[in-house]
Amino acid sequence: MSGELILIVEDDAMLAQGLQDWLQFVGYRVQLASNGREALERLENVHPDIILADIIMPQMDGYQLFEAVRSRPELNAIPFLFLTGRAQKRDILIGKGLGADDYITKPWGPEELLTAIRVKLKRTKDIAFTQLQRAYKDSLTVLANAIEARDAYTRGHVERVSSYSVMIAREMEMDDDEVDEIELGAILHDIGKIHVHESILSKPGDLTPEEISEMRKHTEIGAFMVKDIPYLVPATPIIKYHHERYDGMGYPEGLSGEDIPLHARIMAIADLFDALTTLRSYHEALSPEEAVAYIQNEAGKHFDPKIVEVFVRAWQKHKDD
User: CATH no. for residue 104?
Assistant: First the structure.
């Protein structure tokens, strides 16, 4: 157990004490309240991970407590389980109709109650983790867009490349963790451009050899920027290697074939497809069909031919979305 805090709201002192002793024995922290009003007073100072409440109690019953908890933004995400002897169907429907996370009737077995607690706590943690990941990604997207905004021609590039990369990954039936890593890498793939001068980013026409050398540094600079941030480390292969070519003529290391990390090979196609289909300072935008044909022609040269096939298949499925 990880010591989560459980608030038990129960007017039967003997039952409440028994629950407290047992739950503390299996590793939880427990606080007691004898009715809904006392529970609300405790909630002014503590934020439990889950609430177990009886229904029939003096001063404020379980239903009233539940509605009071759900009406407060800082409390309404706490899992709430009714633990009661009222087993009539009508009572159960009322409890579930209010939106309680569970309704367990007495007598219950210890394993039944423990399983219900574990399931609700895990679900809450999963939701919180997902929300945190989304918040991270949203924040990083804002940062990446701020960098891209230095070049008027690449606005929206981050979102589009992320979408194309995820589309390819889904078509390859990658698991959710890999898809998340690819999405993260797509968001951050050009973060190293923060060190590239704006005059180079927005220069019309060809770059000088010196300017090309400066531009190419963004892959290694970007990888260096995230290498010590654990949450961002999975994005490093995409950031560093998305400009490698399947024929070994790319940069920064001239990797070829399957020596190029898979996620970077996916990203290379998504990145160039967006570059081809949007107006840039150095070229007019191609139609999506023209860009797809160009990428097909580069299979085995710029791109991994197997991933090109996946990209074309995915594009055909989703082009009208």
Answer: 3.40.50.2300
Domain boundary among 90, 124, 158: 124
Beta strands in 43-151 (DSSP E): 50-53, 80-84, 102-105
Contact 84, 112 (CB under 8 A): no
The gap between the terminal CA atoms of the chain, to the nearest Å, is 46
What is the C-alpha to C-alpha distance for residues 42 and 31, in angstroms, rounded to an integer?
A: 9
* 13 within domain boundaries: yes
Residues 76 and 113 in one domain: yes
Q: What is the rounded CA–CA span in Å between residue 306 and residue 304?
A: 6
**Mean of the per-residue pLDDT values of the chain:** 85
Query: Do 87 and 205 fall into the same domain?
Result: no
Q: For residue 204, how far is the Cα from the chain centroid? A: 37
Residue 136 lies in a domain: no
Cis peptide before 58 (omega within 30 of 0): no
Query: What length is written for the chain?
Result: 321
Confidence at 104, pLDDT banded by 50, 70, 90: confident
Tokens at 6, concatenated? 């459980």
Number of Cβ atoms within 10 Å of the Cβ of 16: 19
32, 8 contact by CB (below 8 A): yes
Backbone dihedral region of 59: left (phi > 0), alpha (psi from -120 to 50 degrees) or beta? Answer: left
Q: Are residues 45 and 153 in the same domain?
A: no
In what helix (H) or strand (E) does residue 171 lie, and over which residues does it extend? Answer: helix 157-171
* Position 7 confidence tier, pLDDT thresholds 50, 70, 90: very high
Q: What is the pTM of this model?
A: 0.61
Largest CA distance in the chain: 83
- 135 against 314, higher pLDDT: 314
Indicate the SS3 state at residue 255: coil
The secondary structure of 259-276 as a DSSP string is: GS-HHHHHHHHHHHHHHH
Q: Which of 63-67, 108-112, 162-166, 171-175 has the lowest mean pLDDT?
A: 108-112
